[in-house]
Amino acid sequence: MTVRELTIVEGMRDIKRLMEKCGNLEEKISKHSADYDIEKPVYGTPDEQTAQVQEWVQSHTDSVHEICDLKRRLTKTNVETKVTITIGDNAIERTITEWIARRTQLSSLHARAFACLNDRRLDKNLHLGASTPGAEDKVINIRRYYDPKARDKQLDALRDEPHLINQTLEVINATTQLVD
Q1: What does the angle CA 104 – CA 106 – CA 111 come to, to the nearest 5 degrees?
Q2: Is the model's pLDDT at 59 over the cut of 80?
Q3: Quick one: which of 116, 118, 73, 99 has its CA closest to 162?
Q4: 78 Cβ contact partners less than 8 Å away, ≥ 6 residues apart
Q5: Which residue segment(s) compose the domain that 52 sits in?
Q6: Within this chain, do residues 102 and 148 fall inside the same structural domain, yes or no?
Q7: Percentage of the chain surpassing pLDDT 70?
Q8: Could you tell me the CA-to-CA distances from 39 to 53, 60, 62, 163 in Å, in that order?
Q9: Tell me, what's the pLDDT at 132?
């Protein structure tokens, strides 16, 4: 069997087309797989109708196998193809599969830890009043165990990451051939 040369986006388009084809075949199979013996078969004789239904079933089976093969090739391509994306000041190389995971879940998961770096709404103007007359008020300062500027820079980079991944993967999907 010859393997068709396809880009990632062409493979995804073919899967969608084949899924629609399967849906259409299912409708035909369901509608024409049985009738009453007093009716005239839509596709000629009973034998011809049986042959037509079997042809649709076979076409559906072939389409399912083709979808399975395309999905295997897409998965293999996504696992094997490395892509470098510059995020912030860092050029990072990951597989397409890893970038998809970052885009769909992991960027926001990663950002959640940085978003937790906060002052816990501590009062910035807190004073400890003197308990004895004549004693001075003491100003209580907030002590942070993180750098707010570094946190904000990291959060900005993580918020931009899904967009950068999408931009890059659009080009990669249009130009990268599916692996067999």
Answers
A1: 115
A2: yes
A3: 99
A4: 8, 95, 96, 97, 100
A5: 8-80
A6: yes
A7: 95
A8: 17, 26, 31, 59
A9: 62
The DSSP letter of residue 4 is P
| 70-104 pLDDT, tens digit each | 999 999 999 999 999 998 889 999 999 999 999 99
Q: What is the DSSP letter of 137?
A: P
Q: Please check whether residues 74 and 87 belong to one and the same domain.
A: no
Is there a domain that residue 3 lies in? no
d(CA 121, CA 118): 8
Tokens of 128: 């400890």
In a domain, 1, yes or no: no
**114 and 161 co-located in one domain:** yes
Answer yes or no: do 75 and 92 share one domain. no
Q: Is-contact 171 99, C-beta < 8 A?
A: no
What's the CA gap between 155 and 166, in Å, rounded?
Answer: 18
How many domains is the chain partitioned into structurally?
2
Boundary (domain end) residue, out of 80, 99, 133:
80
What per-residue confidence (pLDDT) applies to 16? 98
Tell me whether residue 76 is in a domain.
Answer: yes
Instruction: Evaluate whether residue 57 is within a structural domain.
Output: yes
d(CA 179, CA 71): 11
Instruction: Kindly state the DSSP code that residue 82 receives in the 8-state scheme.
Output: E
